[in-house]
Please model this.
Amino acid sequence: MRSYTPAVAFPEEYLHPNEELVLDLRPHWFQMLPSTAALIAAIVIGLLVITQIGNDVVSILAGVLILTALVWFGVNYASWVSSHFVLTSDRLIHREGIISRSGIEIPLERINTVFSSQSIFERMIGAGDLVIESASTEGRQEFANMRKPSAIQNEIYVAMEANENRKFDRISGGAPAAAPASIPEQIEQLDSLRERGLISDAEFARKKAELLDRM
Model:
């Protein structure tokens, strides 16, 4: 999965300090197939009509057909090339659009469940869909035409576990260790044990002597 990094990568300045990029993916190439096939078909049909018939009206209609298919291809390509499905060490990011952009960000700790699904044909070409349920305001998010969705699902769970471990380490590492009791305090604790009858006078005297020798 980590090898699927697009030529126009997700800008690193959008990452937080100490945040690492795990995945930067575009939609599967299958998203481009309908508009690409339509453009090729329009060019072939248009050229055949223009060269074989030669009628001005028909030639104009053929040109309009090619232009329409070209516009559809261009819009679809712009949408494909500007889409980023990004997984970092802290969050999941989805952004799309060139002129007007839209996007969502889901912190990893808010993700509850990740579903992946593939039809038989999608399994053959390595495509599929992802559904992410989270406790964030976005709730349920669906992502179509993803590359190897089951592998992405696994990467998300691995990143979630690593993020949880880092958070636990920060909490554990941030708690100050309790300072050891001083020798006078330890003698007081021993005297309290002696008064409660938990140790004998002889044991108290011996332990006290050991502690005083350390001073």
